[in-house]
Design brief:
With about 190 residues, the protein is an alpha/beta fold. The chain has helices at about 10-20, 20-30, 40-60, 70-75, 80-85, 105-110, 165-185, and strands at about 35-40, 60-65, 90-95, 120, 135, 140-145, 150-155.
Length: about 190
């Protein structure tokens, strides 16, 4: 079920007033080790946009585990995702919704455009992990603490891979599990 965003103009103005977008951009450009908090859909969009830009700037792979690719968040990120792909970034997505739920999803189509369909793995079922996250390379991330409120933490330089290493392992574990299930189903 898509999340409604009331009074986007008023919210956007409030975000500009408090400088959140500018701070996130500064953290990205400085490869900051600061862990920033994200408390809303608007913050999520700003952080994810900057993570995609970061990926493109440094030609890093992107791994996204999400329940849904909410249009309110992801539709506006198509230019950044497309640019990252043009820069040579490999974007992989695991989503819990089914393929039919993505038929009109702009972000999904941007990620698979001209690429194999395995860029997006649609599970159509809950993933064992309740944490949704985006991982860029082995240092930058955004991980949701509470999916319903979009409360999350992000960092552009996890120097010791304290968060990124386990998230990367979790993503790969889900991929391996799904691939082995598919191979078993196909007699392999």
């Amino acid at each position: 079920m898509p999340i409604a965003v009331p009074h986007v103009e008023a919210i956007s103005a409030a975000i500009r007033e408090n400088g959140y977008a500018e701070r996130v951009e500064a953290y990205r450009k400085g490869k900051s080790t600061y862990i920033l908090q994200n408390n809303s859909i608007e913050h999520a969009t700003i952080v994810i946009r900057n993570l995609l830009i970061f990926a493109g700037e440094h030609k890093l792979p992107v791994r996204l585990l999400s329940g849904e690719l909410f249009p309110e968040v992801y539709d506006g990120l198509v230019p950044e995702a497309s640019d990252a792909i043009r820069q040579g970034c490999d974007i992989r997505v695991i989503t819990m919704c089914g393929a039919s739920d993505l038929a009109h999803n702009k972000f999904y189509h941007a990620v698979i455009a001209g690429r194999s369909k395995d860029a997006v793995l649609t599970l159509g079922e809950p993933v064992e992990s309740r944490q949704h996250f985006m991982l860029v390379g082995d240092k930058a991330y955004r991980v949701e603490d509470d999916h319903n409120t979009k409360r999350a933490y992000a960092c552009f330089n996890d120097e010791n891979a304290i968060m990124t290493a386990p998230l990367g392992c979790q993503f790969e574990k889900i991929l391996r599990s799904r691939r082995s299930m598919t191979a078993s189903e196909n007699g392999g």
